[in-house]
Amino acid sequence: MSESNQEGYQTLGWIINKSEQGLFIVVADEILQKEMVGIYRLGAVEIYDYKQHPGEYSFRDLQEWVAGLPETHIFIIANFHLAVQSDESLKRLNFSRDMIEKLGKNFIFLVTTYGDDRLATGAYDFYSFVKMRIIFHDYGINSKKNDKQVSVEDKYVKEEWEPGQLKQKLAETYILTEKAKDEKNKAHYSESEKLLLKVRQIKEELLGTEHLEIAEVNYELAEVYEK
């Protein structure tokens, strides 16, 4: 945990332990979001990660998830920026802001800087209901303009990819990564390596070799090689 983010974690702790209900936004890169998921997974918090469950935002899905966990008060939605990449998903989010609040729970949405910008401009009705916005300092490379997070739609993305194709391909890599982890846990290291190399190949083609997600793949590969 970076010392520069201690205040952010303290604020999150206050939300989890003291806040009765509300909508909160945490702005953090995907590596930091992964760290948060690891920290809070074992607590009295339920977590939904759009990296592991690719798809667009749907209030019905959110409502069903919350209804199935009546004893839970705090819900963290990780990588929420992946669920609101289309204008339609932003419209649905705007439309459902009152319904989300009426669920009477604490919702903590984790987004990258790019995702935060999209919500502020494209889902302003939802954004106006946010009680608090917490910014975490990136572990990765910060750009010179507005500390922008390197994202799916940054300068590394090849221009020839349509948004729908890009989203589909990225969803495929998340599924392959989970399969690779399963193979690693079964001690099928060769199969895990093949899957991760495929993931890296696809992501390098989509995002470029300097993207933070490539570092995540290399980290997973290093674990396999260590085993």
Tell me about this structure:
The structure is a single chain. The chain is an alpha/beta fold. The protein is 52% helix and 12% strand. The protein has a five-stranded parallel β-sheet with strand order 2-3-4-1-5. Helix 3 links the parallel strand 2 and strand 3. Helix 8 packs antiparallel against helix 9 and helix 9 runs antiparallel to helix 10.
Describe the secondary structure blueprint for this structure:
Elements: H1 6-18, E1 22-27, H2 30-40, E2 45-49, H3 59-67, E3 74-78, H4 87-95, H5 97-102, E4 106-111, H6 113-122, H7 124-127, E5 130-135, H8 163-185, H9 189-207, H10 212-226
Parallel strand pairs: 1-4, 1-5, 2-3, 3-4
Helix pairs in contact: 8-9, 9-10
List its traits.
10 helices, 5 strands, 227 residues, 5-stranded parallel sheet
Beginning-to-end CA distance, first to last residue: 25 Å
Tally of individual helices: 10
> What is the structural class?
alpha/beta
Rg over CA atoms? 18 Å
Count of DSSP strands:
5
Encode the helix/strand succession as letters.
HEHEHEHHEHHEHHH
Proportion of residues in β-strands: 5-15%
**Largest β sheet strand count, sense and barrel closure:** 5 strands, parallel
Uncertain residue ranges: 140-160
How is this structure best summarized?
The protein has 227 residues and is an alpha/beta fold.
